[in-house]
Amino acid sequence: MPSQTKRISLLLGIVFTISATGLLSEKKSKELVVKEANIQFLSEAPQETIRGTVSKAEGSANLDTKRVVIRVDLNALNVPNRLMNNHMHENYLETEQHPIASFAGLITKWDLKTKTVEIEGDFSLHGITKKNFKIQGTIEEKEKDFLIRSNFEVILTDFKIEIPKLVILKLNEKIRIETSILWQSKE
C-alpha cells in the first residue's frame, strides 16, 4: 500500500507540474509585443492623393490589465516623392521636434469569436495629446500571434498641424490611417 500511495502522489505531482507549466505558459502569452508593423496614411485632396508608409513601431499589450502602448517613429515615415517627403517632415510633422507618435490606452473589447478589438486612450502627435481617442479593428489569430488591423482618421488641426493655403487643394485636413500590426507573445 505505501508504494502505491507513493506512486499516486508522484503521479499527482507530475500532473500538477504539467498543469502548472501549462498555466504559466498560458499566462506568459497574455503579454504581447509588436513583431511587425505596416502603417499607411492617405491624404485624398482635390488635386493630389498622397500615400505614405512607416514600419518602425514598438509596443506592448497586456491582455490581463488591458493596457496597450504603441510608439511610431515618424522619422521613418516616407512618401514616394523626395521633395514632398522633406516638406512633410520639416513643415508639417516637424519630426525633428516631435519624432514620435504614440498611443496609450485600454482594450475595451477583445473578442476572438467576432474578431473585433476596440481600444480607447490618449493619442499623441506633434506634441499634442488627444484624450479618449477610440480605435476599432479586427483580430486574426496566427498560431501564437495576433494580426490586428484598424483604420481611423486623424484631423491635422486637432494636433495643430496647419495646412498653408497654397497647398490646401493638395493636402486633406483629414488623414486616413490604416494599420496592420502583428503582435507576438512576449518571451
UniProtKB/TrEMBL annotation:
Q: What is this protein called?
A: Lipid/polyisoprenoid-binding YceI-like domain-containing protein
**Cited SUPFAM superfamilies:** YceI-like (SSF101874)
Q: Where are the transmembrane segments?
A: none
Question: Which InterPro entries does the annotation name?
Answer: Lipid/polyisoprenoid-bd_YceI, TTHA0802/YceI-like_sf
Q: Domain named Lipid/polyisoprenoid-binding YceI-like: which ranges?
A: 31-184
